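Researcher: Here's the sequence for the chain we discussed earlier.
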Amino acid sequence: MLLLSPLLSLVPPLPPLFPLFPLPPLFPLFPLPPLFPLFPLPPLFPLFPLFPLFPLPPLFPLFPLPPLFPLPPPFPLPPLFPLPPPLLVLEVVKRRSNQSPAAMRE
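Model: Thanks. This is the structure I predict for it:
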């Protein structure tokens, strides 16, 4: 950045854009009337009580959902890790450590 600072001083400063292109204020040129006094909106909920006109039945009695968790799974799930009991593994390791290398190869 220190090497660029002498080069940046050679660049002429840019003229400001807005004095070159003066923008007139938009709203005094096009005065916008207030929208709501021109089109008065009545209060929506007193005029259209939606729920008394269209009574919504309760959804869950129409479509009874069975309880999810008490239901059994659709197919029996196998155990995730079919490992032998740890004591059996330990016993096999002990037996093999007592054998000779020739017997272990068999």
